[in-house]
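Hello,

Our lab assistant flagged a job as stuck in the queue for most of the afternoon. It eventually completed. Since we weren't sure the result was trustworthy after the delay, we are filing this so someone can double-check. Below is the sequence as submitted and the structure that was eventually returned. Let us know if re-running is recommended.
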Amino acid sequence: MSYRELATRPVLAWSAVTVAGRLPIAMAPLALVFLVRERPGGYSLGAVLAAAYVIGEIVAAPVLGLRLDAEHARPQLVAGLAVGAAGFAGLGLAPGAHPVVLAALALLGGAGPAAVPGGLRALLTSLVPERAVTQAMSMESVLIFGIWAAAPALVTGLALGVAPAVPLLLMGVLLVLAVAGLWMLPPGWQQAAKADGASTRRALLRAWPVYVLGAAGLTLLALAELILPALLEQRGIGIGWAGLLLAGFSIGSAVGAFAYGLRAGWPGTLPLQSLVLVLAVASGVALVAVLPSAAGIAVALVVAGLLQAPASLARNLALRELLPPSALAAGYSVMYAAVGAGYAASGTLAGGLLKVVAPSTAILWGVGLTGLLILIGAVGERRLVREREDADRDRVDADRDRPQAQEAASEDAASASASSEDAASQEADAAVRNVRR
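-- returned structure --
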């Protein structure tokens, strides 16, 4: 199936809703940094606010995702988008509020729409045939990274050219438009009979290595996004370049996602693909910390972005293979929470380190944290692979032994039947002899 065949009315409507619903999410971290940049300790406070926003996402996403009613998800998605719009509008209308108030509003802005990405992905896969799911998810990644490409430039332009609060107000308006657009889509999606809650939770917990690698991937994005403005000032480069450089990262990611969907299968298993690619992205982000010129930083970010999208796609496809169909929407939400956790951890680390070390050193520390997460995820995924190989081997052995068992059972049944016939014959002979006597 070609990308052109995805251009159906339902998928196009889904794309419009996704742009309106996901663009504020992409704008939020950098918008929060610019909102408080001119206050004392502005960069550190901005990193903390971005972390608070993401904490709202990671706490709410699995809770709300598990509660999504697959066939009637629209009211839940509408409520989440409305809460997020209220949080962003509050930040835009009260930019000088106490940091605690700003953190609470950021938390609300992250928590409200936390289940929307997982719900929209489950809805997308229900709009296309099964054979087109990989390409549909590649198309989704192209769209999402296109959004992430536009978001930094949009935030930078509005914050520096108009006012720091304007991006937050625009984000609230976009979420309201997403609410209206949900009525162009089906109210939900069909799914297989849902397992009991305990079985679903076990399935989700079993996939933890995939979530850890997802978290590792987004720590890199956090490093690039939150520390880049400070790094540019350290290098003597105009801060206005931050938006364009991050747009280059996202454009590279969009190209990588499109290229990944052009081929049915890439070398190696999905977990191996994800592992190799996220290591390559980490290397690119580490180069950003040491390269002295804007041109060098731009090249490193574009290459890192080019590999980031296939790494993310491989993780999501691996998760789809690992989970039962009834747990996919919840699994996508947990994955969203996991990558948000990686972002929050990296943002918090960056905010603390920027107080005591140079931005370039803070990036390298963040890459070290990413390496630790990659190691933990790789060990866990290796264990999962062994478990699946053992299960497949047991299934093959059971299939091979089944005909022999059936043959043995047939022979036993025939033998038992013959014995019964012999016994009946002997009883009949005995009865005849008794009659003769």
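-- support follow-up --
The delay was a queue issue, not a problem with the job. The result is valid. DSSP finds 14 helices and no strands in the chain. Residues 430-437 have pLDDT under 50 and may be disordered.
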